[in-house]
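Example (one chain per record):
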Amino acid sequence: MNRLRELGIQGTVCWRPGAPLEQIRREVRAGEHDLIIVGAEPYSRWRRWQTGGLIGSLLGWADRPVLVAR
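Predicted structure:
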């Protein structure tokens, strides 16, 4: 977050308990966000998410860009 602030980019990081997909849906519904950023786990887990888990579901309903970063 500090690097983003130094570049003049505003943002908020929220850590919430619960199932990740449901937490993302709640946050997206509650605010007017331009971008959804999801942190990826190590490669093998990322592959599982991409092929039908979190990322596949997220891409199915997201109405804005999604950035998946390692």
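Caption: The mean pLDDT is 79.
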